[in-house]
Amino acid sequence: MVPSRAAVIAVTALAPISWGTTYAVTTEFLPADRPLFTGLMRALPAGLALLALTRTLPTGAWWWRSAVLGALNIGAFFPLLFLAAYRLPGGVAAVVGSVGPLFVIGLATLLLGERPTARALLAAVAAVFGVSLVVLNAGAAFDLVGVVAGLLSSASMAAGTVLTKRWGRPEGVGPLVMTAWQLTAGGLLIAPVAFLVEGAPPALDGEALLGYAYLALVNTAVGYWLWFRGIERLTATSVMLLGPLSPITAAVVGWAALGQALGPVQVVGMAVAVTATVLGQVAPRRRPPLAVEDLPPTGAVPPPAVPPAGAVPRAQARP
Hints:
By secondary structure, the protein is mainly alpha-helical. Helix content is about 70%, strand content about 0%. α3 (about 35-55) packs across α11 and α5 packs across α6.
């Protein structure tokens, strides 16, 4: 039984919703000031676990394709995202990250031939506006390095999403295997950066181990599997427009579990962002195919053209 489009969208949306819990788990259970190590612990254990489960390695061109996709979706995305988070207030970083759908719309036009619609552009802009209402405050500061890192992280994820859609997957290989390849490749790219920048791994207590286990299994292994599965079944733009659900979830979890304030402006912003997300999932209308009775029979000779009233036949018009 083929799932409906609404069901695919709903399941895919669980990925950014799970990513929205990252901030709460990180601040409550994990060592402070170790963002790269956290990114490594999210990606590499999850990738290795999925590799052990699926027991399938890339072949041929998929060795370098997996490395490219793993770098864009994980290996470059995580460090740039964490750099932006450290250089910018959380709200500003979230707003910069929410421009991802605009990058996808441009890349999908170039690489996939997806014609951008006015509805998609409106949804992407409205999503940025809604997220800004949710997370920004009057004292938000902007740092050039942080903004550039945030934009590059969004562009990296957007390029990974579009290339994942363009390349598809090898015959007989499912989304779970593709997830394993990308998480492993991305984790291996993060590992040397994490050790060079942050040094040896920190000592971990029971809470930290549980936190990392949640991030690796639920937040990353399952989350990215759902994401890549959605890319395969939906348009790249439609999938990326689910991204604003991540900062919205982070705000709701912060309010419910961490005691953070959530005022009327934030509620309005959530409504705008959710509306934009729903708007971006509306499939464009397609022209209905011609009915069989509307088509001319095979081999039929078209009727002769009838000249308009008052026209002079060509033979009579000669001098």
